[in-house]
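Lab notebook, bench 4. The sequencing result for the construct came back, and we need a structural model before the next group meeting so we can plan mutations. Quick request posted to the team channel:

Model the 3D structure of this chain.
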Amino acid sequence: MISIEEKTMTAYAKSFEQELNLRPVPTCSVFLSDGSLKPASFQETPIQLSASKSDLFDKSFPKLSIRSKNVVLEAVPSFVESTNKRIAVLFSGGPAPGGHNIVAGIRRICGELNTVFGIKSGPKGLMAKDLFEISLSEVDEILNTGGFDFLGSDRTKIKSDSQYKRVKDCVKEFNLDAIIVIGGDDSNTNVAFMAEFLADEGCSVIGVPKTIDGDLQIDNYLPISFGFDTATKVYSELVGNILKDSASSQKYWHFVKMMGRSASHVALEVALKTHPHIALISEEIAEKEMSLDQIVSQIAESILYRAGKGKNFGVVVIPEGLIEFIPEFRALIDELNSVLGKYKVEIAALPGKSRESFVQTKLRVSSSQLLKTLPEAIKNKLLYERDSHGNLQVSQIPTEELLVSMVAKKISESKSADGFEFEEKQFTLNENELKTMQSFKFASIHHFFGYEGRCGAPSPFDAAFTYNLGLLAGSLALSDKTGYMAAISNLTDGGYLTAIPLISLLSEEMRDGEPRLVIEKALVKMESPAFKSFKDNRISWAKQDGFISPGPIQFWGPLSKTLPELVVLNEDYKTSSFSLK
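Done. Here's the predicted structure in token form:
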């Protein structure tokens, strides 16, 4: 039997989602005719993007190169009704808030005269022919809701000839005119190859840019990927709460790892929103070629300075992928992967500690010294926990725990050192404050915020952004365009809707020991206005308690239309509120 309390909670949750379903979503004018929703058409712009010049590129894309000519397309009002099209849509990769609105946008722009299929469980479902027809009433129910649960998703990469054959079989069996893939940079790389493969089958393939990490950006055309705004607002609420708690209890340093393995956009956005005492940006560490010890020393100095001021508390924001950006750590990982693979049999035959001693003799002196300085738990992960290919799963290294352990040791060493001096010249303490610092006892708590932000109800911006991306992707499919990514810019001035030829975004990288064409991840740029703003303010954030607790996502009211801080800064917008119309 359901209790009264359970009934009340269920009713609340349902009423919240019902209110979100009813919330109007702004629609760009290019899709409206006399108040009715109509697909846009596309015209070529004068802009031709440069493509990769390599034998691998010429071999991989002979058809798309001729068809698209790498020219950017612009969405324009058309209002020509398309009929009898059969379009399928799938999610690929991890969830991001707003995905359901893309499906809703696609379904609605296709109207009653076309058929839209949902593909269950991502690319795996495409190959398994697990499709179902989506009705207009179904998308009404999922509008403005979080998650990817309407279709589900997975991370299968379609690469082999047998996989492509299964895709072609599905296209033929369901007589598909288009497939729309909602995914990140790797998924959209896959879209380009799939579009080339299906170029002669009469089936278009369209990509939609998704990733909460924010590392899928295209200058002038796509300031950010969808889901980033919602996720960073969720994380900022959590970090804001912890900042308040640290200043209230005044006894802990909180080390908070943020999702974002390949780029630090999430950590940067959260820092801009909350002003934590310390925040690390992986790309800066890589550019400066900072060692792990230098990073630890930098954190320890801020903590010791605040201790001297009687502030034995604070928050450190850490990007998930930090370890991979530290040159010496990257070198250590590469060497360990090589040694553990080469001497697999010999190492397996050795007992406990003897394994570490054996490995140490096979490493360069610098890597051996670094390994010795690491906490035992981290050493064990590096030496014994490998994936099925024998490689270290870097994302599984608890970076926040590593830093806590090493910072604690560094603080102890610094306090006992004679004539301790701060490297950061803006940190100065008088004699009494230095005594206070010496009596400080470091206490810490660590956190990892990742999955908490992936499936929240989309913020008003993400809801509008994704819905219009869906309308745009659906219009591209109805217009028989293939090999393009839907993109929207000019986010404070009505929106500028374009289609970017995916092959123009590809560059050659070494993957698994061989050259491959991939969409390059967008990293935090040191010259960007967003990073410069962070850099100009971080010392004052460390010295003062000027932190911000932004609270939960605002779905209604004057603050509900805010854009991500880094988008406003990097795009030089004159307002922080979005306007898509």
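The chain has two domains: 29-227+458-519, 231-453.
Will bring this to the meeting.
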